[in-house]
Specification:
- By secondary structure, the chain is an alpha/beta fold.
- Helices cover 22% and strands 26% of the residues.
- The chain is built from five helices and eleven strands, in the order αααββββββαββββαβ.
- The strands form two sheets. A nine-stranded mixed β-sheet has the order 1-4-3-2-11-6-7-8-10, covered by helices on one side.
- Strand 2 and strand 3 form a beta hairpin.
- The two termini are 36 Å apart.
């Protein structure tokens, strides 16, 4: 409702002859959740927080619980930083242990051949940026096709909608990205 109202006001402003400088600075994606004001944006429907953590993992380990739809960055003293995530939909969830093999800011995206067979309408390649489905940051998991990555769709956090990757808001993925390095262990429990 708020988005519809904002869209209506913006359209009325443009149609009633707003100043040229105002019209040039308007981007519909600012209202709809993207665009130049997007930055690392999008608040998560699941708040990031420090919690007690009883798992037997070394500090710095990423632990992902797909059933809970949460990612934990293990901290010292029995604590972890907990993030909300989007996970693979039915038939696309997996488990295992890998390491972060690469990190990229505003990564480009080339859908794998398996995804293109299911969705031939997808682009063959997409440059990094606010419209890219990998969002602001990506951390690649070993030699798999899977990543922990941002999303320009914060409403999908807490949902099972991906093809096996782990989605975070751009704010949360940028925060995690700054805290981990290549070689960080990632444990995925399904």
């Amino acid at each position: 409702m708020i988005r519809a109202f904002a869209l209506l006001v913006a359209a009325a402003t443009l149609l009633t002859g707003a100043g040229h400088a105002q019209a040039e600075g308007f981007d519909i994606r600012d209202i709809m959740g993207g665009g130049p004001s997007f930055g690392a944006g999008g608040s998560s429907p699941i708040r990031r927080q420090t919690v007690s953590f009883s798992g037997n993992y070394a500090p710095g380990t990423i632990y992902i619980d797909t059933a809970e739809r949460r990612l934990y960055l293990v901290l010292p003293n029995g604590q972890a930083l907990r993030y909300g995530i989007g996970v693979g939909r039915d038939g696309f969830r997996w488990s295992g242990t890998h390491r972060i093999s690469a990190k990229k800011e505003w990564p480009s995206w080339t859908p794998p051949s398996q995804m293109l067979r299911r969705r031939p309408d997808l682009p063959r390649h997409m440059a990094g940026g606010v419209d890219n489905p990998l969002g602001a940051r990506a951390m690649y998991l070993g030699s798999t096709l899977y990543r922990i990555h941002g999303s320009n769709e914060p409403e999908t956090i807490g949902q099972a909608v991906s093809s096996g990757c782990f989605r975070m808001t751009n704010d949360d993925v940028a925060d995690l990205y700054s805290r981990v390095s290549v070689g960080t262990p990632v444990v995925v429990k399904n």
